[in-house]
Amino acid sequence: MSELAGARFQQLVGIMRTLRSPHGCAWDRQQTVKTLRPFVLEETYELLDALDRGDFDALRSELGDFLFEAVFLAQICEEEGRFSIADSIKAIADKLVRRHPHVFDPDGNALGLTPEATLQPRAVKEQWEEIKAKERQDEGTSAKTLLGGVPRAMPSLLRAYELSTRAATVGFDWVKAEDVLDKIDEEARELREAVEQKGPRSAAAEEELGDLLFAVTNLARKLGIEPEAALRVANDKFQRRFDDVERQVTASGQKLRDLTLEQLEAHWARAKSRS
User: Fold this and answer.
1) CATH of domain 2-98
2) Domain at 156-225, CATH homologous superfamily
3) How far from the centroid of its chain's Cα atoms is residue 70's Cα?
4) Which residues pair with 153 in a beta bridge?
5) pLDDT tens, 182-205?
6) pTM of the predicted model, to two decimals?
């Protein structure tokens, strides 16, 4: 199985090199690491969509597309003399061995411990963060700080979750979820005051809304719920119900924009009762 995967991967790398060659594809040769960014994002979201739907046929295909983007980026970087895909693979392999000392020796050989002798998940997470901190010190990047390694390009909801998760590893956290609910109430009051006193489009309102969203993200974390996943479920539910409303209205020979809010809410109530 591993030999077949290796052969297939070599085939993919070879195809990518051909596409970028003078005898390859003009569009592929034209791409840069910057122009590939939207495609990387698109493939990431399509992969997540397959995961959310539990569609493993789609997942198989989307994983291939995602892998292709990684190979594409690495090929461009290799041409520029920066690094190759082999360097990237070695980097992640070395990192996994280094951050799993309870599984591998320093040379990457499996220790072969029994499940009972291995660390529990919480201890593994703490060890992982300690090793990461030491790596930053060894690399002379301690100024990056505990939170500095969280990419600013992350979706803001996910970044808020990761920032607060890392802060919690050193004890900077609410004791229980109920405390975060109190914080949400506080932030909601401050947002209302900002809107009333400064205006709905004011910088103060924007700041307070951000604080409220950050607090809600922390509530999700304390409840053990991934906020991105929870919001995706809510989005899907809203779309499903609104699509139902639209079908109701269309079937009656009307248009959505011609209905009053009261009429729309009546249709919404019926759609909600069906789902």
Assistant:
1) 1.10.287.1080
2) MazG-like (1.10.287.1080)
3) 16
4) none
5) 999 999 999 999 999 999 999 999
6) 0.70
